[in-house]
């Protein structure tokens, strides 16, 4: 049964990735009424929230947009940075939402930042321990340690969910309040941001189911 659920979750992940690309492409063809580029929206939202010292930089690629909390920089993919579409403005403001979270020390973002060094280590070691524990049945304790390490990565993904949803909610509220979009355009913004959020939900679901599978394997060995 657990394998069927993992397959379903994996299928959901593929569908989510397809949907976010399709939704972004669809609404990138719809110009935003304000005429703002993604850069314009990001810069103005940052300034309106007292983040004048946070730069906005273009990066190559598609959907490579992110906020770097260490360098304190909002980086937007070139289509988002330069285009004047609902997709561009939506994604740009979502990333600024993370910058605002950082400024306000949003609890879940702070937790994720503190977890990152640990998860960066455990996620690299966990697969090796799990494989060794499965191959060498007499060393089942390696499997247990691998599961514990993998659990840290799963927890990191779960903490990421409220961080992403909160950034999207902030973006939508501020975009309307600041006049970046009209009320009619809010529907398109919601579709773009919801499609992006679904990819995080799918990834978290896969990780949780994989963790359950590993726990069942360990219990059958014990």
UniProtKB/TrEMBL annotation:
Record's PANTHER family?
Answer: MEMBRANE PROTEASE YUGP-RELATED (PTHR36434)
**InterPro entries per the UniProt record, alphabetical:** Zn_peptidase_2
Q: Which residues cross the membrane?
A: 115-136, 141-159, 197-218
Source organism superkingdom: Bacteria
Q: What is the lineage of its organism?
A: Bacteria, Bacillati, Bacillota, Bacilli, Bacillales
Name the chain's protein: Zinc metallopeptidase
Pfam families from the xrefs?
Answer: Zn_peptidase_2
Cite the entry's keywords alphabetically: Membrane, Transmembrane, Transmembrane helix
